[in-house]
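Sequence, please.
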Protein backbone atom coordinates (compact mmCIF):
# COMPACT_ATOMS: atom_id res chain seq x y z
CA UNK A 1 0.00 0.00 0.00
CA UNK A 2 1.21 3.52 -0.83
CA UNK A 3 2.97 5.05 2.18
CA UNK A 4 1.30 8.36 1.24
CA UNK A 5 -2.15 6.85 1.72
CA UNK A 6 -4.29 8.61 4.37
CA UNK A 7 -4.19 5.45 6.50
CA UNK A 8 -0.49 6.15 7.12
CA UNK A 9 -0.87 9.89 7.63
CA UNK A 10 -0.56 10.73 11.33
CA UNK A 11 -2.76 13.78 10.91
CA UNK A 12 -5.57 11.55 9.57
CA UNK A 13 -5.53 8.92 12.32
CA UNK A 14 -8.31 10.53 14.32
CA UNK A 15 -10.56 10.60 11.24
CA UNK A 16 -9.68 6.97 10.43
CA UNK A 17 -10.51 5.82 13.94
CA UNK A 18 -13.75 7.79 13.85
CA UNK A 19 -14.64 6.10 10.56
CA UNK A 20 -13.96 2.65 12.04
CA UNK A 21 -16.19 3.35 15.06
CA UNK A 22 -18.98 4.80 12.89
CA UNK A 23 -18.81 1.98 10.31
CA UNK A 24 -18.83 -0.67 13.04
CA UNK A 25 -21.93 0.90 14.58
CA UNK A 26 -23.62 0.97 11.18
CA UNK A 27 -22.76 -2.67 10.44
CA UNK A 28 -24.17 -3.77 13.81
CA UNK A 29 -27.65 -2.81 12.65
CA UNK A 30 -27.35 -2.96 8.87
CA UNK A 31 -27.39 -6.75 8.56
CA UNK A 32 -30.62 -6.98 10.55
CA UNK A 33 -32.16 -4.20 8.47
CA UNK A 34 -31.29 -6.04 5.24
CA UNK A 35 -32.94 -9.21 6.53
CA UNK A 36 -35.99 -7.20 7.57
CA UNK A 37 -36.03 -5.58 4.12
CA UNK A 38 -36.38 -9.04 2.60
CA UNK A 39 -39.62 -9.42 4.55
CA UNK A 40 -41.01 -5.89 4.10
CA UNK A 41 -39.51 -4.32 0.93
CA UNK A 42 -42.43 -1.90 0.82
CA UNK A 43 -41.29 -0.27 4.09
CA UNK A 44 -40.11 3.12 2.82
CA UNK A 45 -38.63 4.19 6.16
CA UNK A 46 -36.56 1.02 6.30
CA UNK A 47 -35.28 1.52 2.75
CA UNK A 48 -34.39 5.13 3.64
CA UNK A 49 -32.56 3.95 6.77
CA UNK A 50 -30.48 1.40 4.86
CA UNK A 51 -29.76 3.98 2.14
CA UNK A 52 -28.50 6.49 4.72
CA UNK A 53 -26.23 3.91 6.33
CA UNK A 54 -24.62 2.87 3.04
CA UNK A 55 -24.35 6.51 1.95
CA UNK A 56 -22.54 7.41 5.17
CA UNK A 57 -19.96 4.66 4.67
CA UNK A 58 -19.51 5.67 1.02
CA UNK A 59 -18.88 9.32 1.85
CA UNK A 60 -16.14 8.77 4.44
CA UNK A 61 -14.58 5.93 2.41
CA UNK A 62 -14.25 8.29 -0.54
CA UNK A 63 -12.69 10.98 1.65
CA UNK A 64 -10.12 8.47 2.96
CA UNK A 65 -9.32 7.27 -0.57
CA UNK A 66 -10.67 3.76 0.13
CA UNK A 67 -11.41 3.17 -3.51
CA UNK A 68 -12.89 -0.33 -3.43
CA UNK A 69 -15.10 0.33 -0.43
CA UNK A 70 -16.29 3.61 -1.90
CA UNK A 71 -17.07 1.99 -5.29
CA UNK A 72 -18.96 -0.89 -3.73
CA UNK A 73 -20.97 1.36 -1.42
CA UNK A 74 -21.78 3.67 -4.34
CA UNK A 75 -23.13 0.80 -6.47
CA UNK A 76 -25.08 -0.51 -3.46
CA UNK A 77 -26.44 2.98 -2.87
CA UNK A 78 -27.69 3.20 -6.45
CA UNK A 79 -29.79 0.06 -5.96
CA UNK A 80 -31.29 1.39 -2.75
CA UNK A 81 -31.99 4.75 -4.41
CA UNK A 82 -33.82 2.93 -7.23
CA UNK A 83 -35.86 1.05 -4.62
CA UNK A 84 -36.76 4.34 -2.94
CA UNK A 85 -37.99 5.66 -6.30
CA UNK A 86 -39.83 2.36 -6.91
CA UNK A 87 -37.85 1.78 -10.09
CA UNK A 88 -36.91 -1.78 -9.01
CA UNK A 89 -39.33 -4.66 -8.55
CA UNK A 90 -37.89 -6.30 -5.47
CA UNK A 91 -37.33 -10.06 -5.41
CA UNK A 92 -36.23 -12.04 -2.32
CA UNK A 93 -33.17 -13.33 -4.21
CA UNK A 94 -31.90 -9.75 -4.37
CA UNK A 95 -31.27 -9.97 -0.64
CA UNK A 96 -28.48 -12.45 -1.35
CA UNK A 97 -26.74 -9.83 -3.48
CA UNK A 98 -27.17 -7.13 -0.85
CA UNK A 99 -25.89 -9.38 1.91
CA UNK A 100 -22.92 -10.33 -0.25
CA UNK A 101 -22.17 -6.63 -0.76
CA UNK A 102 -22.52 -6.10 2.98
CA UNK A 103 -20.05 -8.93 3.69
CA UNK A 104 -17.51 -7.41 1.31
CA UNK A 105 -17.95 -4.01 2.96
CA UNK A 106 -17.12 -5.55 6.34
CA UNK A 107 -14.01 -7.26 4.98
CA UNK A 108 -12.81 -4.02 3.38
CA UNK A 109 -13.42 -2.16 6.64
CA UNK A 110 -11.44 -4.79 8.53
CA UNK A 111 -8.56 -4.06 6.16
CA UNK A 112 -8.72 -0.45 7.29
CA UNK A 113 -8.49 -1.59 10.92
CA UNK A 114 -5.51 -3.80 10.08
CA UNK A 115 -3.97 -1.01 7.96
CA UNK A 116 -3.44 -3.55 5.18
CA UNK A 117 -5.42 -2.82 2.01
CA UNK A 118 -5.57 -5.81 -0.32
CA UNK A 119 -7.72 -5.75 -3.48
CA UNK A 120 -10.80 -7.97 -3.48
CA UNK A 121 -12.52 -9.42 -6.53
CA UNK A 122 -15.63 -7.24 -6.50
CA UNK A 123 -16.63 -7.77 -10.11
CA UNK A 124 -19.31 -10.47 -9.49
CA UNK A 125 -21.10 -8.50 -6.76
CA UNK A 126 -20.77 -5.19 -8.65
CA UNK A 127 -22.22 -6.81 -11.76
CA UNK A 128 -25.09 -8.28 -9.75
CA UNK A 129 -25.88 -4.88 -8.19
CA UNK A 130 -25.80 -3.25 -11.62
CA UNK A 131 -28.13 -5.95 -12.98
CA UNK A 132 -30.62 -5.18 -10.19
CA UNK A 133 -30.39 -1.48 -10.92
CA UNK A 134 -30.91 -1.99 -14.65
CA UNK A 135 -33.77 -4.46 -14.22
CA UNK A 136 -31.90 -7.39 -15.80
CA UNK A 137 -31.32 -9.39 -12.61
CA UNK A 138 -32.19 -13.07 -12.70
CA UNK A 139 -32.22 -15.18 -9.54
CA UNK A 140 -29.55 -17.88 -9.65
CA UNK A 141 -27.92 -16.48 -12.76
CA UNK A 142 -25.02 -14.98 -10.80
CA UNK A 143 -22.59 -16.91 -8.62
CA UNK A 144 -21.74 -14.70 -5.67
CA UNK A 145 -18.48 -15.18 -3.73
CA UNK A 146 -18.41 -15.41 0.05
CA UNK A 147 -15.56 -13.12 1.15
CA UNK A 148 -15.32 -14.50 4.68
CA UNK A 149 -18.06 -16.76 6.00
CA UNK A 150 -16.16 -17.49 9.18
CA UNK A 151 -15.88 -13.78 9.92
CA UNK A 152 -19.61 -13.38 9.46
CA UNK A 153 -20.48 -16.26 11.78
CA UNK A 154 -17.95 -15.25 14.37
CA UNK A 155 -18.98 -11.66 14.69
CA UNK A 156 -17.73 -9.51 11.82
CA UNK A 157 -15.68 -6.40 12.23
CA UNK A 158 -13.46 -6.08 15.28
CA UNK A 159 -12.16 -2.71 16.31
CA UNK A 160 -8.40 -2.27 16.33
CA UNK A 161 -6.38 -1.29 19.37
CA UNK A 162 -8.28 -0.62 22.56
CA UNK A 163 -11.94 -1.44 22.20
CA UNK A 164 -14.52 1.20 22.98
CA UNK A 165 -17.65 0.81 25.07
CA UNK A 166 -20.64 3.13 25.02
CA UNK A 167 -22.24 3.79 28.38
CA UNK A 168 -25.69 3.71 26.76
CA UNK A 169 -25.72 1.03 24.06
CA UNK A 170 -28.80 -0.06 22.13
CA UNK A 171 -27.76 -3.06 20.14
CA UNK A 172 -30.80 -5.34 20.26
CA UNK A 173 -31.48 -7.66 17.37
CA UNK A 174 -33.86 -6.39 14.72
CA UNK A 175 -36.90 -8.30 13.51
CA UNK A 176 -35.75 -10.26 10.48
CA UNK A 177 -37.14 -12.89 8.16
CA UNK A 178 -36.82 -14.58 4.78
CA UNK A 179 -38.59 -17.19 2.71
CA UNK A 180 -36.52 -19.88 4.46
CA UNK A 181 -35.77 -18.33 7.85
CA UNK A 182 -37.24 -15.53 9.90
CA UNK A 183 -36.56 -13.90 13.26
CA UNK A 184 -38.60 -11.78 15.59
CA UNK A 185 -38.02 -9.99 18.87
CA UNK A 186 -40.85 -10.61 21.31
CA UNK A 187 -42.55 -7.51 22.57
CA UNK A 188 -41.08 -5.23 19.89
CA UNK A 189 -43.32 -3.24 17.61
CA UNK A 190 -42.98 -3.51 13.87
CA UNK A 191 -40.80 -0.79 12.44
CA UNK A 192 -39.15 0.19 15.72
CA UNK A 193 -35.67 -0.42 14.32
CA UNK A 194 -36.30 0.88 10.83
CA UNK A 195 -36.09 4.60 11.45
CA UNK A 196 -33.42 6.74 13.03
CA UNK A 197 -33.91 8.27 16.46
CA UNK A 198 -34.17 12.03 16.27
CA UNK A 199 -32.76 12.41 19.78
CA UNK A 200 -29.13 11.39 20.17
CA UNK A 201 -28.44 9.34 23.33
CA UNK A 202 -26.47 11.09 26.05
CA UNK A 203 -23.38 8.90 25.84
CA UNK A 204 -19.61 9.06 25.71
CA UNK A 205 -17.07 6.51 24.47
CA UNK A 206 -14.49 5.16 26.88
CA UNK A 207 -11.61 2.82 26.15
CA UNK A 208 -12.06 -0.56 27.79
CA UNK A 209 -8.53 -0.32 29.19
CA UNK A 210 -9.63 2.66 31.29
CA UNK A 211 -12.62 0.74 32.63
CA UNK A 212 -10.31 -2.15 33.47
CA UNK A 213 -8.05 0.24 35.36
CA UNK A 214 -11.02 1.60 37.30
CA UNK A 215 -12.08 -1.96 38.07
CA UNK A 216 -8.61 -2.73 39.44
CA UNK A 217 -8.70 0.37 41.65
CA UNK A 218 -12.16 -0.51 42.95
CA UNK A 219 -10.84 -3.98 43.70
CA UNK A 220 -8.07 -2.48 45.81
CA UNK A 221 -10.64 -0.26 47.53
CA UNK A 222 -12.76 -3.32 48.37
CA UNK A 223 -9.72 -5.01 49.89
CA UNK A 224 -8.99 -1.90 51.93
CA UNK A 225 -12.60 -1.72 53.09
CA UNK A 226 -12.54 -5.35 54.17
CA UNK A 227 -9.32 -4.74 56.12
CA UNK A 228 -10.79 -1.64 57.77
CA UNK A 229 -13.93 -3.48 58.83
CA UNK A 230 -11.84 -6.35 60.21
CA UNK A 231 -9.67 -4.00 62.29
CA UNK A 232 -12.68 -2.14 63.66
CA UNK A 233 -14.30 -5.42 64.63
CA UNK A 234 -11.14 -6.49 66.45
CA UNK A 235 -10.89 -3.10 68.16
CA UNK A 236 -14.50 -3.31 69.33
CA UNK A 237 -13.96 -6.83 70.67
CA UNK A 238 -10.84 -5.72 72.55
CA UNK A 239 -12.58 -2.65 73.92
CA UNK A 240 -15.60 -4.61 75.15
CA UNK A 241 -13.30 -7.14 76.81
CA UNK A 242 -11.38 -4.41 78.67
CA UNK A 243 -14.24 -2.02 79.44
CA UNK A 244 -14.71 -3.41 82.93
CA UNK A 245 -11.06 -2.98 83.89
CA UNK A 246 -10.13 0.28 82.22
CA UNK A 247 -12.09 3.48 82.16
CA UNK A 248 -11.80 4.49 78.51
CA UNK A 249 -14.91 6.56 77.69
CA UNK A 250 -13.09 8.70 75.15
CA UNK A 251 -11.76 5.64 73.33
CA UNK A 252 -15.23 4.12 73.28
CA UNK A 253 -16.68 7.31 71.81
CA UNK A 254 -13.99 7.47 69.14
CA UNK A 255 -14.57 3.81 68.30
CA UNK A 256 -18.28 4.44 67.85
CA UNK A 257 -17.58 7.37 65.52
CA UNK A 258 -15.07 5.24 63.62
CA UNK A 259 -17.70 2.51 63.18
CA UNK A 260 -20.17 5.06 61.81
CA UNK A 261 -17.56 6.40 59.38
CA UNK A 262 -16.61 2.89 58.30
CA UNK A 263 -20.27 2.10 57.62
CA UNK A 264 -20.37 5.11 55.31
CA UNK A 265 -17.17 3.97 53.58
CA UNK A 266 -18.63 0.47 53.23
CA UNK A 267 -21.85 1.83 51.72
CA UNK A 268 -20.04 4.16 49.32
CA UNK A 269 -17.56 1.50 48.26
CA UNK A 270 -20.36 -0.95 47.50
CA UNK A 271 -22.20 1.64 45.39
CA UNK A 272 -19.01 2.68 43.59
CA UNK A 273 -18.20 -0.94 42.84
CA UNK A 274 -21.71 -1.48 41.47
CA UNK A 275 -21.49 1.67 39.33
CA UNK A 276 -18.12 0.72 37.83
CA UNK A 277 -19.30 -2.80 37.11
CA UNK A 278 -22.39 -1.36 35.46
CA UNK A 279 -20.24 0.61 33.01
CA UNK A 280 -18.72 -2.70 31.85
CA UNK A 281 -22.12 -4.26 31.26
CA UNK A 282 -23.27 -4.59 27.66
CA UNK A 283 -26.40 -6.06 26.15
CA UNK A 284 -26.32 -9.70 25.14
CA UNK A 285 -28.12 -8.55 22.00
CA UNK A 286 -24.66 -7.82 20.60
CA UNK A 287 -24.28 -11.59 20.30
CA UNK A 288 -27.93 -12.45 19.59
CA UNK A 289 -27.99 -9.97 16.69
CA UNK A 290 -25.64 -12.15 14.65
CA UNK A 291 -27.83 -15.25 14.66
CA UNK A 292 -30.64 -14.15 12.30
CA UNK A 293 -28.18 -14.23 9.41
CA UNK A 294 -26.71 -17.53 10.61
CA UNK A 295 -30.14 -19.19 10.83
CA UNK A 296 -31.20 -17.79 7.46
CA UNK A 297 -28.09 -19.15 5.75
CA UNK A 298 -28.37 -22.54 7.46
CA UNK A 299 -32.05 -22.82 6.51
CA UNK A 300 -31.21 -22.21 2.87
CA UNK A 301 -28.27 -24.63 3.00
CA UNK A 302 -30.35 -27.46 4.52
CA UNK A 303 -33.50 -26.62 2.51
CA UNK A 304 -35.46 -26.09 5.71
CA UNK A 305 -37.92 -23.47 6.90
CA UNK A 306 -36.85 -22.03 10.25
CA UNK A 307 -38.15 -19.13 12.32
CA UNK A 308 -35.83 -17.64 14.94
CA UNK A 309 -37.48 -15.79 17.82
CA UNK A 310 -35.37 -13.71 20.20
CA UNK A 311 -36.29 -12.59 23.69
CA UNK A 312 -34.40 -10.62 26.34
CA UNK A 313 -31.69 -9.24 24.05
CA UNK A 314 -31.48 -6.17 26.34
CA UNK A 315 -30.27 -8.37 29.21
CA UNK A 316 -26.83 -7.17 30.32
CA UNK A 317 -23.67 -8.93 31.45
CA UNK A 318 -19.97 -8.15 31.67
CA UNK A 319 -18.31 -7.28 28.37
CA UNK A 320 -15.61 -9.94 28.83
CA UNK A 321 -18.31 -12.63 29.04
CA UNK A 322 -20.17 -11.31 25.99
CA UNK A 323 -16.98 -11.79 23.99
CA UNK A 324 -16.63 -15.39 25.18
CA UNK A 325 -20.16 -16.79 24.83
CA UNK A 326 -20.41 -16.21 21.07
CA UNK A 327 -18.83 -19.55 20.08
CA UNK A 328 -20.89 -21.75 22.45
CA UNK A 329 -24.13 -20.10 21.36
CA UNK A 330 -23.17 -20.39 17.69
CA UNK A 331 -22.60 -24.14 18.07
CA UNK A 332 -25.92 -24.58 19.89
CA UNK A 333 -27.87 -22.62 17.27
CA UNK A 334 -26.18 -24.55 14.45
CA UNK A 335 -26.95 -27.80 16.26
CA UNK A 336 -30.62 -26.84 16.53
CA UNK A 337 -30.82 -25.94 12.83
CA UNK A 338 -28.92 -29.02 11.62
CA UNK A 339 -29.89 -31.82 14.01
CA UNK A 340 -33.01 -30.41 15.67
CA UNK A 341 -35.34 -28.95 13.04
CA UNK A 342 -36.64 -31.53 10.55
CA UNK A 343 -37.13 -30.92 6.80
CA UNK A 344 -40.59 -29.47 5.92
CA UNK A 345 -41.85 -32.74 4.39
CA UNK A 346 -40.93 -34.73 7.49
CA UNK A 347 -42.58 -32.18 9.77
CA UNK A 348 -45.78 -32.36 7.73
CA UNK A 349 -45.80 -36.16 8.05
CA UNK A 350 -45.56 -35.76 11.83
CA UNK A 351 -48.45 -33.30 11.84
CA UNK A 352 -46.20 -30.33 12.62
CA UNK A 353 -46.06 -26.90 11.06
CA UNK A 354 -43.57 -27.15 8.16
CA UNK A 355 -41.80 -24.11 9.59
CA UNK A 356 -39.63 -25.07 12.55
CA UNK A 357 -38.85 -22.65 15.36
CA UNK A 358 -35.68 -21.89 17.31
CA UNK A 359 -36.19 -19.72 20.38
CA UNK A 360 -33.27 -17.80 21.91
CA UNK A 361 -33.79 -16.00 25.21
CA UNK A 362 -31.82 -14.35 28.01
CA UNK A 363 -32.82 -13.29 31.51
CA UNK A 364 -31.32 -12.46 34.89
CA UNK A 365 -31.56 -14.76 37.90
CA UNK A 366 -29.79 -13.23 40.90
CA UNK A 367 -26.10 -12.80 40.07
CA UNK A 368 -26.41 -15.01 37.01
CA UNK A 369 -27.65 -14.74 33.45
CA UNK A 370 -29.78 -17.55 32.06
CA UNK A 371 -29.63 -18.18 28.31
CA UNK A 372 -31.95 -20.71 26.70
CA UNK A 373 -31.81 -22.19 23.20
CA UNK A 374 -34.92 -24.23 22.42
CA UNK A 375 -36.25 -25.83 19.24
CA UNK A 376 -39.43 -27.68 18.33
CA UNK A 377 -37.61 -30.27 16.26
CA UNK A 378 -37.02 -34.01 16.55
CA UNK A 379 -35.59 -33.95 20.06
CA UNK A 380 -32.84 -36.22 21.37
CA UNK A 381 -33.28 -40.00 21.14
CA UNK A 382 -31.60 -41.45 24.27
CA UNK A 383 -31.55 -44.98 22.81
CA UNK A 384 -29.78 -43.77 19.66
CA UNK A 385 -27.25 -41.89 21.81
CA UNK A 386 -26.55 -44.98 23.90
CA UNK A 387 -26.14 -47.13 20.79
CA UNK A 388 -23.73 -44.64 19.24
CA UNK A 389 -21.75 -44.51 22.50
CA UNK A 390 -21.36 -48.30 22.43
CA UNK A 391 -20.35 -48.25 18.74
CA UNK A 392 -17.67 -45.65 19.48
CA UNK A 393 -16.43 -47.59 22.53
CA UNK A 394 -17.34 -44.71 24.79
CA UNK A 395 -19.42 -47.04 26.97
CA UNK A 396 -19.87 -50.76 27.32
CA UNK A 397 -23.30 -52.28 26.64
CA UNK A 398 -23.89 -52.80 30.35
CA UNK A 399 -22.95 -49.21 31.16
CA UNK A 400 -25.24 -47.94 28.40
CA UNK A 401 -28.18 -49.93 29.75
CA UNK A 402 -27.72 -48.37 33.20
CA UNK A 403 -27.89 -44.80 31.86
CA UNK A 404 -31.00 -42.76 32.47
CA UNK A 405 -32.34 -40.66 29.59
CA UNK A 406 -30.99 -37.48 31.18
CA UNK A 407 -27.55 -39.04 31.56
CA UNK A 408 -27.67 -40.22 27.94
CA UNK A 409 -28.24 -36.63 26.79
CA UNK A 410 -24.92 -35.65 28.38
CA UNK A 411 -23.09 -38.00 25.99
CA UNK A 412 -23.26 -35.33 23.28
CA UNK A 413 -20.61 -33.36 25.22
CA UNK A 414 -18.03 -36.14 24.84
CA UNK A 415 -15.09 -35.24 22.55
CA UNK A 416 -15.57 -36.67 19.06
CA UNK A 417 -19.13 -37.81 19.75
CA UNK A 418 -21.54 -37.25 16.84
CA UNK A 419 -24.64 -39.05 15.61
CA UNK A 420 -24.23 -37.63 12.10
CA UNK A 421 -22.73 -40.11 9.65
CA UNK A 422 -21.88 -37.56 6.94
CA UNK A 423 -19.26 -34.93 7.65
CA UNK A 424 -20.34 -31.55 6.30
CA UNK A 425 -19.52 -27.87 6.70
CA UNK A 426 -21.64 -27.58 9.84
CA UNK A 427 -21.60 -30.95 11.61
CA UNK A 428 -20.36 -34.52 11.69
CA UNK A 429 -16.92 -34.04 13.25
CA UNK A 430 -18.05 -34.30 16.87
CA UNK A 431 -16.32 -31.11 17.97
CA UNK A 432 -19.15 -28.59 18.31
CA UNK A 433 -20.79 -29.63 21.58
CA UNK A 434 -17.42 -30.45 23.11
CA UNK A 435 -16.44 -26.82 22.43
CA UNK A 436 -19.62 -25.70 24.20
CA UNK A 437 -18.71 -27.73 27.29
CA UNK A 438 -15.09 -26.56 27.33
CA UNK A 439 -15.91 -22.86 26.87
CA UNK A 440 -18.63 -22.90 29.51
CA UNK A 441 -16.31 -24.59 31.99
CA UNK A 442 -13.75 -21.83 31.44
CA UNK A 443 -16.46 -19.27 32.20
CA UNK A 444 -17.59 -21.23 35.29
CA UNK A 445 -20.97 -21.74 33.69
CA UNK A 446 -23.37 -24.67 33.73
CA UNK A 447 -25.52 -26.25 31.02
CA UNK A 448 -28.61 -28.44 31.34
CA UNK A 449 -30.57 -30.32 28.69
CA UNK A 450 -34.28 -31.06 28.52
CA UNK A 451 -35.61 -33.01 25.56
CA UNK A 452 -38.74 -34.85 24.47
CA UNK A 453 -38.38 -37.09 21.41
CA UNK A 454 -40.51 -35.75 18.59
CA UNK A 455 -41.19 -32.45 20.34
CA UNK A 456 -37.87 -30.65 20.73
CA UNK A 457 -34.85 -29.84 22.89
CA UNK A 458 -33.99 -27.05 25.31
CA UNK A 459 -30.44 -26.10 26.37
CA UNK A 460 -30.20 -23.89 29.48
CA UNK A 461 -26.94 -22.02 30.13
CA UNK A 462 -26.24 -20.39 33.49
CA UNK A 463 -23.36 -17.89 33.66
CA UNK A 464 -22.04 -15.48 36.31
CA UNK A 465 -22.57 -11.80 35.48
CA UNK A 466 -18.93 -10.95 36.14
CA UNK A 467 -15.67 -12.69 36.99
CA UNK A 468 -13.78 -9.77 38.57
CA UNK A 469 -15.23 -9.40 42.09
CA UNK A 470 -16.73 -12.61 43.44
CA UNK A 471 -19.07 -13.66 46.20
CA UNK A 472 -17.24 -16.65 47.64
CA UNK A 473 -17.62 -19.30 50.32
CA UNK A 474 -14.55 -19.49 52.54
CA UNK A 475 -13.67 -23.05 53.55
CA UNK A 476 -10.83 -24.71 55.47
CA UNK A 477 -8.94 -27.83 54.51
CA UNK A 478 -6.29 -28.67 57.09
CA UNK A 479 -4.47 -25.46 57.99
CA UNK A 480 -5.31 -23.69 54.74
CA UNK A 481 -8.26 -21.46 53.88
CA UNK A 482 -9.65 -21.38 50.34
CA UNK A 483 -12.31 -19.35 48.53
CA UNK A 484 -14.89 -21.27 46.48
CA UNK A 485 -16.72 -18.99 44.00
CA UNK A 486 -20.34 -18.92 45.08
CA UNK A 487 -21.68 -19.15 41.53
CA UNK A 488 -20.27 -22.70 41.39
CA UNK A 489 -21.84 -23.68 44.74
CA UNK A 490 -25.22 -25.41 44.74
CA UNK A 491 -25.39 -26.11 48.47
CA UNK A 492 -23.33 -27.32 51.44
CA UNK A 493 -24.15 -30.28 53.67
CA UNK A 494 -22.66 -31.76 56.82
CA UNK A 495 -21.23 -35.24 56.31
CA UNK A 496 -22.13 -38.00 58.68
CA UNK A 497 -20.11 -41.23 59.02
CA UNK A 498 -21.27 -43.70 56.40
CA UNK A 499 -22.43 -41.08 53.88
CA UNK A 500 -19.29 -41.50 51.75
CA UNK A 501 -19.29 -44.77 49.80
CA UNK A 502 -16.83 -46.31 47.38
CA UNK A 503 -18.03 -47.30 43.91
CA UNK A 504 -15.62 -48.68 41.33
CA UNK A 505 -12.56 -46.40 41.44
CA UNK A 506 -13.88 -43.48 43.43
CA UNK A 507 -15.86 -42.21 46.39
CA UNK A 508 -19.39 -40.90 46.05
CA UNK A 509 -22.24 -39.63 48.15
CA UNK A 510 -25.93 -39.96 47.46
CA UNK A 511 -27.71 -36.67 47.91
CA UNK A 512 -31.19 -35.62 46.78
CA UNK A 513 -31.51 -38.83 44.75
CA UNK A 514 -28.27 -38.11 42.90
CA UNK A 515 -24.98 -39.98 43.00
CA UNK A 516 -22.25 -37.33 43.24
CA UNK A 517 -18.50 -38.04 43.05
CA UNK A 518 -16.42 -36.93 46.02
CA UNK A 519 -13.32 -34.73 45.81
CA UNK A 520 -11.35 -34.35 49.03
CA UNK A 521 -9.84 -30.87 48.83
CA UNK A 522 -7.00 -31.70 51.20
CA UNK A 523 -5.86 -34.57 49.01
CA UNK A 524 -6.39 -32.83 45.69
CA UNK A 525 -4.27 -29.84 46.77
CA UNK A 526 -1.91 -31.85 49.02
CA UNK A 527 -2.90 -30.02 52.20
CA UNK A 528 -1.94 -31.81 55.43
CA UNK A 529 -3.94 -31.87 58.63
CA UNK A 530 -2.17 -30.16 61.57
CA UNK A 531 -3.10 -32.87 64.09
CA UNK A 532 -2.89 -36.11 62.11
CA UNK A 533 0.83 -36.75 61.98
CA UNK A 534 1.09 -36.00 58.28
CA UNK A 535 -2.24 -37.54 57.34
CA UNK A 536 -4.10 -35.69 54.59
CA UNK A 537 -6.80 -33.30 55.66
CA UNK A 538 -10.57 -33.98 55.43
CA UNK A 539 -10.28 -37.74 56.05
CA UNK A 540 -13.53 -38.30 57.91
CA UNK A 541 -13.19 -40.45 61.01
CA UNK A 542 -15.66 -41.25 63.77
CA UNK A 543 -16.46 -38.06 65.64
CA UNK A 544 -14.73 -35.74 63.13
CA UNK A 545 -16.51 -32.80 61.54
CA UNK A 546 -16.51 -32.55 57.77
CA UNK A 547 -18.66 -30.90 55.14
CA UNK A 548 -19.41 -31.43 51.48
CA UNK A 549 -19.75 -28.37 49.28
CA UNK A 550 -21.80 -29.41 46.25
CA UNK A 551 -20.30 -27.63 43.23
CA UNK A 552 -21.23 -27.71 39.55
CA UNK A 553 -19.53 -26.42 36.41
CA UNK A 554 -20.81 -26.95 32.86
CA UNK A 555 -22.65 -30.30 33.08
CA UNK A 556 -20.40 -31.70 35.83
CA UNK A 557 -21.14 -31.91 39.55
CA UNK A 558 -18.96 -32.90 42.52
CA UNK A 559 -18.95 -32.94 46.32
CA UNK A 560 -15.96 -30.97 47.59
CA UNK A 561 -15.12 -32.33 51.05
CA UNK A 562 -13.65 -29.77 53.48
CA UNK A 563 -12.99 -29.56 57.23
CA UNK A 564 -14.87 -26.33 57.95
CA UNK A 565 -17.27 -23.82 56.42
CA UNK A 566 -16.02 -20.41 57.56
CA UNK A 567 -18.15 -17.66 56.01
CA UNK A 568 -19.43 -16.03 52.84
CA UNK A 569 -17.37 -13.04 51.73
CA UNK A 570 -16.89 -10.79 48.74
CA UNK A 571 -13.39 -11.23 47.37
CA UNK A 572 -11.32 -9.56 44.66
CA UNK A 573 -9.54 -12.14 42.52
CA UNK A 574 -5.89 -11.39 41.79
CA UNK A 575 -3.67 -12.99 39.18
CA UNK A 576 -0.87 -15.24 40.43
CA UNK A 577 1.51 -13.88 37.79
CA UNK A 578 3.33 -15.68 35.02
CA UNK A 579 5.37 -17.88 37.34
CA UNK A 580 2.39 -19.46 39.14
CA UNK A 581 -0.39 -19.06 36.58
CA UNK A 582 -0.05 -22.68 35.43
CA UNK A 583 -0.91 -24.13 38.88
CA UNK A 584 -3.93 -26.31 38.17
CA UNK A 585 -7.09 -25.89 40.19
CA UNK A 586 -6.26 -22.34 41.29
CA UNK A 587 -7.96 -19.38 39.58
CA UNK A 588 -6.06 -16.72 41.50
CA UNK A 589 -5.58 -15.30 44.97
CA UNK A 590 -7.24 -12.78 47.22
CA UNK A 591 -6.49 -10.91 50.45
CA UNK A 592 -8.84 -11.26 53.41
CA UNK A 593 -9.68 -8.53 55.88
CA UNK A 594 -7.06 -9.79 58.35
CA UNK A 595 -4.35 -9.54 55.69
CA UNK A 596 -4.20 -13.28 55.01
CA UNK A 597 -3.56 -14.27 51.39
CA UNK A 598 -5.65 -17.24 50.26
CA UNK A 599 -6.19 -19.08 47.00
CA UNK A 600 -9.39 -18.85 44.93
CA UNK A 601 -10.32 -22.26 43.55
CA UNK A 602 -10.97 -22.97 39.87
CA UNK A 603 -13.72 -25.54 40.40
CA UNK A 604 -13.96 -26.56 36.76
CA UNK A 605 -10.24 -27.26 36.55
CA UNK A 606 -10.29 -29.21 39.82
CA UNK A 607 -13.01 -31.50 38.48
CA UNK A 608 -11.17 -31.93 35.21
CA UNK A 609 -7.93 -32.70 37.07
CA UNK A 610 -9.60 -35.39 39.17
CA UNK A 611 -11.18 -36.98 36.09
CA UNK A 612 -7.80 -37.09 34.38
CA UNK A 613 -6.17 -38.71 37.43
CA UNK A 614 -8.88 -41.32 37.90
CA UNK A 615 -9.25 -41.92 34.17
CA UNK A 616 -12.94 -42.20 34.85
CA UNK A 617 -15.48 -39.93 33.20
CA UNK A 618 -18.51 -42.01 34.04
CA UNK A 619 -22.07 -40.71 33.98
CA UNK A 620 -22.05 -40.85 37.81
CA UNK A 621 -20.49 -37.39 37.66
CA UNK A 622 -23.34 -36.03 35.59
CA UNK A 623 -26.01 -33.80 37.05
CA UNK A 624 -29.02 -35.93 36.30
CA UNK A 625 -31.83 -33.84 37.65
CA UNK A 626 -31.64 -30.39 36.03
CA UNK A 627 -30.47 -27.06 37.45
CA UNK A 628 -28.73 -26.86 40.82
CA UNK A 629 -30.60 -25.79 43.91
CA UNK A 630 -30.15 -22.35 45.44
CA UNK A 631 -26.98 -21.99 47.51
CA UNK A 632 -27.43 -22.83 51.17
CA UNK A 633 -25.14 -23.67 54.03
Amino acid sequence: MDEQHPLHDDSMQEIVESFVVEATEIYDGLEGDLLQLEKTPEDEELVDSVFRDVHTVKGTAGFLDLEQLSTLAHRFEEVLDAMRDQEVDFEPAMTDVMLCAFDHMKVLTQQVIDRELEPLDLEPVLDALEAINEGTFEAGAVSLPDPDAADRAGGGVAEGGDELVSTDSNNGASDTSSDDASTSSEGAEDGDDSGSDSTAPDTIRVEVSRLNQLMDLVGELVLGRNRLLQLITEARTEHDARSGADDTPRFGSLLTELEEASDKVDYTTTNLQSAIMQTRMVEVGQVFGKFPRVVRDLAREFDKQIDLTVEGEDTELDKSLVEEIGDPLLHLVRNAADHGIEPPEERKEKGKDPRGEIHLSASHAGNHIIIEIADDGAGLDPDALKQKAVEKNVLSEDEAKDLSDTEAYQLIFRPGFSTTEEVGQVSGRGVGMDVVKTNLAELNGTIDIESTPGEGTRFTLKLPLTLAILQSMLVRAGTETFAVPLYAVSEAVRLEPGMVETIQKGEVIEHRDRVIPVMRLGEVLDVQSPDAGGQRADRLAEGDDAYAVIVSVAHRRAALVVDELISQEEVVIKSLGDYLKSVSGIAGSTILGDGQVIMVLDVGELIQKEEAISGDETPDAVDAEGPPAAPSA
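The mean pLDDT is 78.
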